Amino acid sequence: MGEKYSMEQEEIFSKVMRAGRRTYFFDVRATKAGDYYLTITESKKFTNDDGSFHYKKHKIYLYKEDFHEFKDNLEQMIEYVIKEKGEEVISERHRSDYTKPEDKAPLSAQDSDLSEDTSTKTNFTDLDFDDI
Questions:
Q1: pTM for this one?
Q2: Judging by DSSP bridges, how do beta strands 53-63 and 36-47 pair with one another?
Q3: Quick one: which H or E segment has residue 62?
Q4: What CATH architecture is 3-64?
Q5: Rounded CA gap, 29 and 5, in Å?
Q6: pLDDT tens, 11-51?
Q7: Which residue from 116, 69, 28 is spatially nearest to 107, judged by alpha carbons?
Q8: Domain residues of the chain, as ranges?
Q9: At residue 87, what are phi and psi to the nearest 5 degrees?
């Protein structure tokens, strides 16, 4: 794949969505055969100790044969979250009993409903995907 092909690939159709420190890029690209597929890239901004910035990027590729199922699954997940938790964002900082982490006492078994809020924070492994 030559540089010229890559540049044309980037210009087919793109949308950018900014969400705090994250930016999402939706790009329509072309296969070598000339068909289209979608890439979704999450770029997250981090501040280095010296004040400079770096970004971590994660990309998924979505091909036409998977569009319908992907869309159905995404819609089901969104509907489930809204049905279960509503559209208002729930944050520990907005809880009436919220205290700064350094002020918190260790959670007891009786506070298991509070521990559920923090147990969903997971470390993800960075994966690099080669461009197609």
A1: 0.58
A2: antiparallel
A3: strand 53-63
A4: Roll (3.10)
A5: 10
A6: 799 999 999 999 999 999 999 999 999 999 999 999 899 98
A7: 116
A8: 3-64
A9: -90, -15
Neighbours of 59 (CB within 10 A): 15
Burial of 87 (0-12, 13-18, 19+ CB in 10 A): exposed
Q: How far apart are CA 10 and CA 16, in angstroms?
A: 13
Hey, is 95 helix, strand or coil? coil
- CA separation (Å) from 5 to 27, 36, 61, 64, 81? 15, 14, 18, 21, 40
Rounded distance between C-alpha atoms, residue 28 and residue 39, angstroms: 7
Q: How far apart are CA 65 and CA 14, in angstroms?
A: 20
Contacts of 55 (CB under 8 A, 6+ apart): 43, 44, 45, 46
